[in-house]
Each structure stands twice: as C-alpha cells, then as structure tokens.
Amino acid sequence: MKPYLLELNEIQRKAVTNIKGPVLVVAGPGSGKTRVLTYRIAHIIQQPNVRPWEILALTFTNKAAKEMKERISKVVGDKANQVWAGTFHSIFAKILRVEASKIGYTSNFTIYDSDDSKSLINNIIKEMNLNKENYNVNTVRSRISSAKSNLIPPKAYRENVELREQDKIAKRPYVADIYEKYMARCKKAGAMDFDDLLYQLYVLLYKNPDNVLEKYQKKFKYLLVDEFQDTNHLQYQIVRKLTNYEGTEYMCSW
Amino acid sequence: MKERNICVVGDDAQSIYAFRGATIENILDFEKDFKPYGIQVFKLEQNYRSTSHIVQAANEVITYNKRQIQKKIWSDKGDGSKIKIIKAMTDNEEGKRVADTIVEQKNRSHLSNSDIAILYRTNSQSRVFEEYLRRYNIAYKVYGGLSFYQRKEIKDLIAYFRLIVNPNDEEALRRTINYPKRGIGKTSIDKISATAAELGESMWNVLNKTTLSKKATATVLEFKKMILSFQSKLDTLNAYEIASEIAKKSGLIDLLRADKSIEGMGRMENMTSLLDGIKEFVENDEVQIEDAGEDKSLATYLQSVALHTDLDEKNDEDDYVTLMSVHGAKGLEFKSVFVVGLEEQLFPSFMSLDSLEGIDEERRLFYVAITRAEQFLTISYANSRYRFGKMKHNEPSRFLQEISTKHLESNTSLKRSGGNTFVSERAGRSGVKGNFKRTNINNTLMADPKTFKPNPSSEIQEGMEILHLKFGKGKVLSIDGSEKNRVATIFFKQIDDPKRRIMLKFAKLQILE
Fold it and tell me: Distance from A215 to chain B by nearest Cα, in Å?
C-alpha cells in the first residue's frame, strides 16, 4: 500500500481511493477533511494517463487552496503546482480573462468590490432622480446580487411577476431599470463585480457550448469542490455544467 | 460526451452562509440528484480534534435541526473536560469572568494565548472582552474589523492601479481624478459623466470631449497625461517599480506625509506596507496557485488583491488570544474556546427568530462554534447587557438547554436557586423546537421585588446579613472607603462569583433579621 494511504482510517481511505465519481464525502468537524481531499487528488495524479492540469479543485479561500497544494506536493512533488486549485472566484476570473471577448469584455477587466458597486448604484439612483429612501442602496444591491445568483438577467427580472410585485409593494418599481443600467455600466467600464465572476462565466458556458464549454469539459477531467455546503445556486449550476451533468437548464434570454 | 468525474466534500451541519446566498439544499440533495449516476457516499465520522464531552454535546445540539444528513460523530480522545458554563449578571461581568477563566486556564493547564479563542455572534460584543484582557495584560487580536485592503488609503492607491490597467474602470476614475485634490470639482465630474452617457462611451474616453472651464480642461488633460505615462511603463516595469512610481507621482505619498497626526502616520505606515507587499509579490519566486506561469505585472497583482478572501489574514506567528465572530472561526481550531453571549435574541440572533430555517442556521452556527474546541469549552451568557444603547434583559439561549447536563461541569448546573427558570432537562425531543415554556420573566432577580424593602445604606454595617435584589442573600464581610463613598465587600452565597464589592451610596440592600 502507498505510504500516504497508511495515514488514513478505513473510511478515509475509501474516500481517497474510490476515484470513480460521483462522490459525496460528508466530513464532520475535525474528521480530516483536508487530508482526504488532498490525498484524493494526489491519488488521482498517480493514476495512469492522468495529467495534473486535468484536475480542478475549487475552494472558498486562497488559504485553503494554498494549503491543499502544499499537502499534495508532499506526496507527489512538483506536479502539485500544475493542478488547477483556487477559489471559485479566482479560477473563474482566470477563465473569463481568456474568453473575455466572447461576452463583450476585454481581458484586462477590473473587479468591483462592494463599495464600487454601491457607489455605481448610488450614481444611477441619483441620475434617475429616484427617491433615496425607497431605493436604499444596500437593498437594491442585494436584489441585483440575488437576481444574478439565481440566473435572472435584467430582462427576466422585469418580466418576473413575483419580483415586480415585491418591488411595487416596497415602492421601488424601477429596480429592474437600475439593474439593467448597472449591468450596462459595468460592461462599459470593463468591470465585473463578485457576482459577475460567476454569472458571466455561466453565460459564457451557456452561450458557447461548442467552442468554450466543451473545451473546459475536456480539459477538466476531475472536478473537486471543498466546503460544498457553502455553494450557492449558481456555483452548483456551473459545477454541473463543467462536469456535463445537466440539471435544469436555465433558459433565459441573454 | 460522457460525464466528468465529480467529488464534493462538505458538512451540511456547518452550512452557515445562507446570508451570502449559500444553498444548503445543494449538499442535502446531492445524493438524490446523483443517484442515477451511481453516486458513492462516504461519511467521515471520527473526530480527531475534540474530546468526547465536546463531540457529544455537539451531536446533541444538531439533532434539533430539521433536515440533515444523518451522522454520528465520535472521538477516541477520552471524555476530556466537561463544558463550563458561566452565568453572568451583566455583559461586563461576563467579560471579567471569561478573562478570569483565561488566566486560570493559562496557569493551570499551561495554555499559551494562541491556544485560546473567544467567539461571539456579532463583532460588537468584543469590547468587554478586550477591556478585561487589556486590564490583565493578556495579548489579544480582534479579527473582522476593516480588512487591510478595505482601508481608505489602500483603496486610494489601488484605484490608481486599476485605472492604469483598465482606464475604462469608472469607479477607479471617480476615485482618482480629484484625489489628491487637483481642482476638478463635482460639476466637472458630473459633466464628464453626462457626456459619457450621451455618447455611450466610458468616462475615460470622453475626458477630452467634454466641455469644461479652461482651468478644469487643463487639469483633466494633465491627469490623463499622467495616467497614460504610467500606462506606457506597464510592459517594462514590474509591479513594485510601477507601484512606487504611482504612489509618488500621484501625490498620494506627499499627502499622507503631510499629515502628522497619529492616524496619519498609521495611514502612511499602511501605504508603505502595501508597497512592501508588492515587493514581496515581485520577489517571491515560489509558484503561486492562482498564477502558475503568470507574470509579475501590476495586472496580476491586482487580481490577487481583488480576490483576497477575509479568512486569508490570520497568521499564527505571535502569541495572542483570538477574538472573532463564529463565522470567522470556520475551519479553525483552538485548545480552549469560549463561546460567549448565549442569550435569546443574541444567539440565536433576533433576526433569525421568525423562521425555523433561521433558527436552524443559528444552531449550525452554534455547532460550528463549539466544535472549534479541542480540550476546553466554556459557554457564557449574561442576564442583561447593553445593546443599541439600551439595557436589555435576555433569557439564556435555547441552545444551552439542548446540551444534556452530563456534559456540563457539575457546579454549573443550569438550575438556579430561588426557584428561577431554566429547566435543564429536556422536555422530550419531539416537537420542542423553539417551544420551551418559560415561566419567569424576572429571571435576573434573586429576591421578590414586591416584598423587598431596602434600608438606608448608612445603616449597613460589617457582619450584617443582607438581601440584594439581583444577588440574593449575603453577608457583609467588611466596609472600607471614605465616609461618603463607603464600599462593602459582601459574600453572596447564591451566585457563582460570590464575593462582590458594592458601592453603598448606590446600593439597595435590605437588612435581614
């Protein structure tokens, strides 16, 4: 048995060596989750005909990704650095930079943090002469953010009866307009907010099934997700798309 | 094409980011979703971190949640210490007793500061703990304030970097165009913005197409020239060289240098440390995860800064007690953990109380909190605390009652003397969620206010048996202080921390026969 497998208990070892997916590892607190995840990757690397850059491991923090790489390299050495391991946002940003032109961006796009988003929304509210109380910038921002996270583009937002009703009752009927302007202004500025890094990637994969989606599906033969309980709807949909497990297809008019 | 290999790892019991849009259903339904594809499920149930009392208490608490992936976490590290409960009268007392316990643990169990963490539901709770740790001279560090990259002076410089890498970046342009002040006022900026909207272009692209006053036009063009000159060096200079040049030539450094206040010097220090960080980024030849094979350009640096995650900041080099929110503690572990403020309205938060999903999320948060502890777990609550400027009385958190007493230190039985609240035994498992009968609204009182008749404090003498509304029966051990400010040391036998110093001027005490 390989020496690293001896460090594992029986169930951990099963989780590491059963490399045929799909696999769900339910990891209680302090149960050696990172060890299992990293050894699983190390184990996959050592299979015949597997190249490290065919493995994509998604985390929520840079620290987790870094730790993962360090641990993998203890088993397989330098190959660890060729694994695609990083946060959802950074890996997606990397893909988006390569493919930017396909969704109307350039590869030097900058990233808006929440203050930038708020400032832009504020300017739009002012320019539209809307009442600042009804259009609270934090509320508007969080509505835009959850619309994106649920794959609802501005046009669909406008046509969604439930959302329209909610906005009407809260006396902010123009949220859809703000949303639309916000998206246009971000694009004009060559900027993406944090939600865009997920949303635009989904749009990219959805709109380009042959020349983009298939390329990454072929590239990433193994996909691993850490802290899966913290994923949102959009992250899950992207993961399913990349692994070619189609769930509900989101048919929106982009 | 055939499906790719997918493996997801996680713990539904530790899903605590619903407020950021996390969907716990993703993990709860994963097995069902992938059943048609022959999913394999592995449950890692052995906990290598904590001793048994802690693990079992966590198991008990989480069973109260409605939907979950069934699992039984266990540990073979022995029973370990039981959980200590601190009941305090006020938040201030909570702070003191937590600090006292830290001192005791450091002495008795030889813990270092870095072995210890205080975890709270909201960041504003840190103040009282800071106060006592400072008083006891214990080094501590509070996490969760403004992160380094969110500070104004840092964002000011980063905005220049952004504009140089991507001149169309509207927010970066707005932040830099008149900072440091160059005399491009709000009117000019509004005009530029209006022209951009009119022509359907970015603000940068219309800088010289906008009609402004003569003086403003000159200044705007000067600004544009400066940015372009930085831009022309992007290909030849590395991130550090160009960043230093930007910091100097933009006038940002001079502006900070001119401010001789302590805050100003702090801001200057931050700016220097940002530049140092960039230098390190440039010189570090270790291959980074994010940018394997990429360059040391400003654009690459910018990407790493923009996607910096909060949790990345903790480093373990110095010896200090960690103070952070429970959310921030995810994934961390400490020999000794204090989970504080276990009160209804606070933990669970008042914002979660209107839905079962909300309470379940708070319970998972509590689960995360207590499972950070390896050997010592202390849970505290106060009967009253200042919140939003008002003294509030809260009942102990429902989560406390979900831990059976066999895991709690014996002298901290949850039963109170004086017939007060808090049934420690569970009233049967099913259907009790959030429905505990609470009989006593005055659970902060140890005496009946209706029959309580305080004596004038001048009559209080050493050796007397007295009654205090909050602390109950006590004996006056000694009296000191000046004539006008007499202070009594009183031993209250009904409370946990019995010896109290009471200012007689303000005290309401009833002399008992």
Answer: 12
Q: Give the structural domain span for B135.
A: 84-147+316-407
Short-list A178, A208, A229, CA closest to A99? A208
Which residues of chain B fall below pLDDT 70?
1-3, 145, 285-294, 309-317, 411-445
The mean per-residue pLDDT over the stretch A138-154 comes to 94
CATH (domain of B385): 3.40.50.300
Decide if the complex's ipTM is over 0.90: yes
Name which of A20, A29, A109 is nearest B166 (Cβ-Cβ). Answer: A109
| Interface residue B356 vs chain A (CB under 8 A) | no
Q: Which residues of A touch B73 (CB under 8 A)?
A: 28-29, 31
Percent of chain A's residues with pLDDT above 90:
89
Nearest chain A alpha carbon to B301: A110
| Cβ atoms of residues B480 and B461 within 8 Å | no
Question: Which of A48, A44, A5 is closest to A21 using CA atoms?
Answer: A44
CA distance B367 to B349: 15
A247 or B83, higher pLDDT = B83
**pLDDT greater than 70 at residue A249:** no
Q: Does the bond joining B454 to the residue before it have cis omega, within 30 degrees of 0?
A: no
Domains and CATH numbers, chain A: 3-100+208-242 (3.40.50.300), 110-189 (1.10.10)
CA nearest to B202, candidates B161, B169, B165, B164:
B169
